Amino acid sequence: MSKGRRKFVVRIDDERKLLFKGKKKSVEEVSKRRKGKIIMKLLFDDNEETEVMLSYTKATLPYNKKEYNLVIVYGLSEARPMKLLTNIEIKNKEDVIKVARLYLSRWKIEEYFRGKKQEYEFENMRVRTLESMNNLNMMLTIHLGHIAILAEKINKNILAIKIIYESKSLRRKSIVWLSQIARGIKNILAYAHEGIKSWQDIKIKVHNKQLQLKL
Questions:
Q1: By three-state DSSP, how is residue 142 classified?
Q2: Across-strand partners of 84?
C-alpha cells in the first residue's frame, strides 16, 4: 500500500513491533503507556450515545523505516483498546477522529463477513460446482439482508427483541447485531424437531401413474 502511494487505515496486532523514537517496542506496550485525551462520540443505536477516547503517536515500521501514525481507540472493548496504523497526515484532533471513523465505517462490513463464516460456517459448506457455491452464497446473502432489516428494529419490534433474548448473549447491547440475531434464530429453530411440517400443512403431490393397456 505504501508503494502504491495510497492512503490507508489498517488494524494492527498487539504483538507487532514498531520503532518509537528509535527503540523497538510492541504496540501493546505503547498503548498501555498512553492515555486517551481526545473525545469521540459514537451513536450505537437510536437512543444511546457513547464516548470513546482516542490517542495517537508517531511510529516507524522497522523493515522500511517509514514513519506512520498509530491511533489508539479506548472504550470500544473492555478487554483492550483498538490500534490503527495509517499513513494519513494528522495535524490536530479532528484528523485523529477522522482516521478512527474511517476504520469504523468498514467495521460493519468486516463483521458481516466474520458472521458469515463463523455463525453460518460458510467456508465449511461442501458443493461440487461453482454454480452451487454461488447459489448458496446468494441465499445466505438474502437471509443476512433480512437480519439487517431486523437489526433496524431492535428495541422497537417484539420479534427482534425475542430473537436477541433467545441468543443468550451476555451483553444485550451490541455495536453489530448480526451475530446475536443469527445465534438467536438458531436457538429458536433448535426446538423444531419436525421441521416445518408441524407449522404448515404441506400437500404432497402424487404423480399420476402411467396408463397401461393390458392385452
A1: helix
A2: 11, 71
